[in-house]
Write a structure and sequence with these properties.
Blueprint (H helix, E strand, L loop, with lengths): L1 E3 L2 E3 L12 H24 L10 H24 L6 H10 L7 H7 L23
Antiparallel strand pairs: 1-2
Length: 132
């Protein structure tokens, strides 16, 4: 029994339900864990914990933009068969945001030797002058 809004209510937990199989309860908790990971990724990576505005409309607007960004990043990860973490995907895309490149091939080649890379400087710039 738990007091909620001044009234006593009986709480029922999934693990106390003896009519369901153990596998059903495990599957439900696994789904719950995926939801927890989803909110953790949004809060930590997309910085949803720090709001720029404090009225209801500003908070709602920022939450919708974070959700839209999350869905677009997950779609990019799915299209490119991304095998790394969401944090790594976000960091990589944030660093390459203003570069002119094909995003899909960039994500597909990340972490492999098959990608095409370009040098930002000429090889002779790596040598120190006056040292043979």
């Amino acid at each position: 029994m738990v007091e909620v809004d001044g009234k006593w209510r009986e709480m029922e937990f999934l693990s106390d339900n003896l009519e369901w199989s153990a596998q059903t309860i495990v599957d439900l908790y696994r789904c719950r864990w995926d939801i927890e990971v989803f909110f953790k990724e949004i809060k930590q990576t997309l910085q949803l914990a720090d709001f720029l505005g404090h009225n209801a409309n500003a908070v709602r607007w920022q939450v919708w933009m974070a959700l839209l960004t999350y869905v677009l990043l997950r779609f990019c990860a799915w299209i490119s068969k991304w095998g790394h973490s969401f944090t790594r995907l976000f960091t990589l895309l944030r660093s390459a945001l203003w570069m002119k490149l094909d995003l899909r091939s960039f994500l597909e080649s990340y972490g492999t030797a098959g990608g095409s890379f370009r040098f930002l400087g000429a090889p002779e710039q790596a040598y120190l002058p006056g040292i043979p």
